[in-house]
Specification:
The chain has 8 helices and 8 strands; from the N terminus they run αβββααβαβαβαααββ. It is of the alpha+beta class. Strand 1 and strand 2 form a beta hairpin.
Length: 188
């Protein structure tokens, strides 16, 4: 159903899935593109995000009269290497489309100190994914649930508890920069 072929060393969703959703441990994961890896390993994950891609997107949007303001983005995290890979593929697609590159997906392990780990929040912005018919991420996730023999829940974003977006969809964020000292590339 999905076009993603996840490398075997990143396939962990089946081990993380339970009848109450995805388990969470001390390590988080972040998906990104190879073109920004060196910068991330030097400066960490910053809320400024991918400035090169943002500038190109804004330039493209300005040609049709769209204007926007700069704002700090949270750092998106998930408890699964496999789900981080999905988001890395999405990042690669955007960068290759706008920057005409040939980048590849990268998954980072994020080992946060306890003070930052306590500030990881459920990304209730996942409600937008639930509202979008045929959302590719949800289709990808549903395939994993089906493979694990676990029924994917029907989520009503209008009355769902925030925890649903982390527990069932693997969506979290941190509203702070993350030092490169807490990051490690996940390799085979």
């Amino acid at each position: 159903m999905t076009d993603y072929s996840v490398p075997s060393h990143l396939q962990d969703t089946l081990q993380l899935l339970t009848n109450t959703g995805l388990t969470t441990a001390d390590v988080w994961y972040h998906g990104t593109a190879s073109g920004v890896l060196n910068n991330i390993l030097e400066q960490g994950l910053t809320r400024a995000g991918d400035q090169t891609l943002r500038e190109r997107q804004l330039k493209t949007l300005s040609t049709i009269g769209h204007s926007t303001t700069e704002q700090a983005e949270p750092i998106f995290l998930t408890q699964s290497k496999e789900l981080a890979y999905y988001w890395a593929e999405e990042k690669v697609h955007s960068r290759n489309l706008y920057l005409q590159g040939n980048e590849t997906p990268v998954v980072l392990a994020v080992n946060l100190p306890s003070d930052l780990a306590q500030q990881v929040s459920t990304d209730a912005g996942g409600a937008a994914l639930v509202l979008e018919p045929g959302n590719a991420y949800l289709l990808f996730l549903k395939e994993r649930y089906e493979a694990a023999g676990i029924e994917f829940p029907e989520i009503n974003p209008f009355d769902a508890d925030r925890s649903v977006y982390l527990d069932w969809l693997g969506l979290a964020y941190l509203a702070h920069d993350i030092s490169a000292a807490y990051l490690q590339v996940v390799e085979a």
